[in-house]
Amino acid sequence: MKCATAATLVLLALAASARDEKSCTVHDSEGTYYDLSGLTAKKDYSFTTFEGREYYINVCKSVQTETWALEDSGEVGGFTRKDRGDFSIGKVNTTIDVRDGHPLLIMKDGSNCIAGGDLKASTAIRFICDTSVTSTGQPQLLAELPPQDTTACAFFIEWRTSYACPTSEGVGFFGGIGFIILSIIALIVAWALFTVLWNRFMLGLRGADQLPTIPFDSVPNVDLSAVKGSVRKFTSRMGLNMGRWGSRNSFQGFSGDGITRSGFSRLPSSHEEAAHMLGEDEDEEDIESPIQIVRPPGMDSEGNVRL
Ligand SMILES: *[C@@H]1O[C@H](CO)[C@@H](O)[C@H](O)[C@H]1NC(C)=O
């Protein structure tokens, strides 16, 4: 049952890693990955309107310039200085969208618009991949609406930067190779589990006979101890109790009918040694073993006593 639990955990981990979007990064529908977190700055960026007003903004972080007379100053994503107090053009947002292949950042819920009701200022920034831009690039205002600085309440910004280019995810454990390894382990666990259940309930096998055997005789001179060692190391790092599977499989190989034996580089040279090896393996057996083998020490799967 531990194996079933382990398999479930692995599958859940795989599913979870596919879902979570890190702050300020995004995958588009085709899986292309964008990471704008490199644009988050200690010193605010600024842009200037056609009439000459200066605005300060940051990316995925509140503005670092000190604001004046603004509520929730820690959540302001962009603002301009006005005589009667600062004017916010939107709240910080760490969720990025992708539209037409360009990352898009929307900041809503800024200050109340001068011109109307409960409408609040908002800003849309379209990031455009441009590898010719060195450093971070600069935001550039495309349009503000209404079009006068005094009443402007919606801001459209274009930002050319290499940070907007598709990139690859950092090789976190769940990225890249880790994902492949986990998938393979999940498949092996599922296969082993299925084999045991099949052998037990469909073929009516008992004891070691119901364990899956790997046809190592088709791969001559496999040094199984090295494989076992690395599998154990990996699984124990993963916190999965699968080392037992390794030892069970090899146990079955050792005690098999001589055909499976040929695959092992380290063969028992005598019956004593064989019995010793079997004995060692018996010692490893404990309550935690996912499947308890009921078999007298020294007896192999054929029922032959080797002592
Ligand atoms: C943050 O951005 C997302 C995606 O564009 C948007 O749905 C959400 O309303 C934004 N939130 C704020 C507070 O701006």
UniProtKB/TrEMBL annotation:
Bilayer-crossing residues are 171-198
Q: What domain of life does the UniProt record list for this protein's source?
A: Eukaryota
Name a single GO cellular component. Answer: late endosome
Keyword entries, A-Z: Disulfide bond, Membrane, Receptor, Signal, Transmembrane, Transmembrane helix, Transport
Q: Chief localization class?
A: membrane
GO MF terms listed in the record are: D-mannose binding; signaling receptor activity
**Keyword Transcription regulation among record annotations:** no
Q: Does the keyword Disulfide bond feature in the UniProt annotation?
A: yes
Localization per Swiss-Prot or TrEMBL: Endomembrane system
Where does the secretion signal sit in this chain? 1-18
Any one Pfam family match given in the protein's UniProt record, by short name: CIMR
Region called Disordered, residue ranges: 272-307
The UniProt record lists the MRH domain at 22-167
Q: Which GO terms describe its biological process?
A: vacuolar transport
Which InterPro entries does the record cross-reference, listed alphabetically? Answer: CIMR_rpt, Man6P_isomerase_rcpt-bd_dom_sf, MRH_dom
Q: What is this protein called?
A: Mannose-6-phosphate receptor binding domain-containing protein
Source species of the chain:
Thelephora terrestris
